Amino acid sequence: MKRIAERFAERSYDFIVVGGGMSGVCAAIEAARSGAKTALVHARPVLGGNASSEIRVHISGADHGMEKPDFAESGLLYELMLENKARNEHFSYSIWDMILFEAAKNTENLTVYYNTVLYDCETEGDRITAALCVQETTEMRYRLTAPLFADCTGNGTLGYYAGAEYRQGSESKAETGEIDAPEAGNNERMGNTIFFRARNMGHPVKFTPPSFAKKYTEHDLRFRMHCANHKVDYSSCKDPEKNEQCGGVSARGVDYGYFWIELMGDKDDIITDYENIRDELVASLYGVWDHIKNGGDHGAENHELEWVGMLPGTRESRRLMGDYILNETDILDNRIFEDAVAYGGWCVDLHCPHGLLDTDIMPSGDCRFYDGVYTIPYRSYYSKNISNLFMAGRNISATKLGMCSTRIIGCCAVGGQAVGAAAALCTKYACDPRGLTPHVPELQQLLLRRDCFIPGFKNEDVLDLARTATFTASSAKAGCEPAKVIDGISRRLGDDAHGWVSDGIREGGEVLAMAFDSKKTLSELALTFESDFNYPIRVTMAPKRQEQQRPGVPAELVKDYDIVFKNGGEVVKTIEVRDNHQRHCVHKFESTECDSVEFCIYSTNGAENITIFEVRAY
């Protein structure tokens, strides 16, 4: 008993996040930055979940593979990816792990428990009172208490232990009215996947498969693109046009593969079957590679396996029910909810239920495409029956078809940031998640202030003094006048730049000036710059996705600038910034009295014009 006592600790927080994928990372960092004492409990040694070096799924989102670039996610996710872009030119997943590790480590009010598994929780009535965890590396057991919790586990593990209402599988068409719902509900789930990375060695490389590898023929893989010279006969599929759009097209070569090495197992519970699925996936992957290397000419004679993921990435398991269940109709109708706090734009991406076993159909042939984006209501981010439980990630309150879009990592991450901001406001108002409902407008404005995007909403922050100022500039392109920096929208949408764009950059720089009608006391300024969402910046193993990117930081980002505070024409303070590589730059400083501020922009990272989408002053 003494040994156990030496390895037990009890700690208290304002907010506890369980699960350190991108939704959990964003929830925890946002809550801590907003003043809540936060703990992040993560079962793995690195953050990022499916986006980490352990699984290596690249971060996709509402831009839908750059088909809708105006709607790329910004906020904390984009901040992290820009930091990575500035320091990780050659797509190293180890560097990406470091970026996330550093961001968490440098966040005040945040404690991260790595290699720490939630094994149970304590409840009183409809509330979680404690998370019970064990840290495998130190043999420490923790009892972590807080008034607020967030389940970002993907599987809904905390909610499950607490008795939260949840669903698995598909709802029927009669229940949801969704156009693509099955006539009868079922327990079919999208499967788990493991990836590999191969490299060309410049000379023939032999591959001897392990004894457990499965055997595949070209006929078995005829609907799964697995080399550069493989062609799919889409005319033989049930929906040729739809299948050509989404059936296996992420695999154009043998360097990086493949999302379709996917299995859901044969048990009723995909979670309890995880280890068996992993074993089958490993056998399948090495079988696919054996076929590529030894089953005919696939352009892989000189290739060898560089890395094989041994931790399957999960698409679907439990969905925790909230006060609203997002559905496919909401998505296809581009619904704007009054209590919207996040959004998505990925297709309704329904994979075949049995993965590689479904050899007669496309692996991802039931995609429902649509124009535009949809919003996700705050009511889908907290539990219906556990009063102090938030959720973020693929386990939010949605139907199966709703989840087929919201499960994408970018969507999970912006939802996580919304949950983190909501938790901080719950701490401020001493309320549970449902009790924050009257304050959702404040939550929306807080998220916009953090550079998040919520379609249909704009900056209406009464505390933002920039909205009362007059703006002038040394030059401006037509339709991109200085006053655009306070039109409430901080990105390009269609033909409207929603920002000031200079007419070139003069020698000595360009100036954007903000003038007040009376003296103001400022302690914070925020600038949002152009970075051009038409170019992705994510870490990825896919050669096709790497080729879409430009080296280094986005050329459009402002690089060097000064912020000059004046009072009665006299300079009272100057802030100098050099080598900036972020889109959203927040400057906090000692309270300063002034009646005008000049933003003196000297250079970008390569663009010929300067673009500032938004200026905020507090």
Key phrases:
single chain, 618 residues, alpha+beta, FAD/NAD(P)-binding domain, Jelly Rolls, 3 domains, seven-stranded antiparallel beta sheet, five-stranded parallel beta sheet, 13 helices, 25 strands, globular
Describe the protein's architecture and organization.
The structure is a single chain. With 618 residues, the protein is α+β, with helices and mostly antiparallel strands. The protein folds into 3 domains: 2-168 and 318-349 and 368-449, FAD/NAD(P)-binding domain (3-Layer(bba) Sandwich), CATH 3.50.50.60; 192-308, no CATH class; 465-617, Sandwich (Jelly Rolls). 21% of the residues lie in helices and 24% in strands. The protein has 13 helices and 25 strands. It has helices spanning 2-6, 22-33, 75-87, 93-105, 157-162, 173-176, 240-246, 274-294, 328-332, 400-406, 409-429, 440-449, 543-547; strands spanning 8-12, 15-18, 38-41, 110-113, 116-124, 127-135, 140-145, 148-151, 166-167, 192-193, 196-200, 256-257, 262-263, 303-308, 319-320, 340-344, 374-377, 389-391, 470-473, 500-501, 510-529, 558-567, 570-577, 584-604, 611-617. Strands 19, 20, 21, 22, 23, 24 and 25 form a 7-stranded antiparallel beta sheet that branches. Helix 3 packs across helix 4. It is globular and about 80 Å long. The termini are far apart. Mean pLDDT is 95; it is low at 242-251.
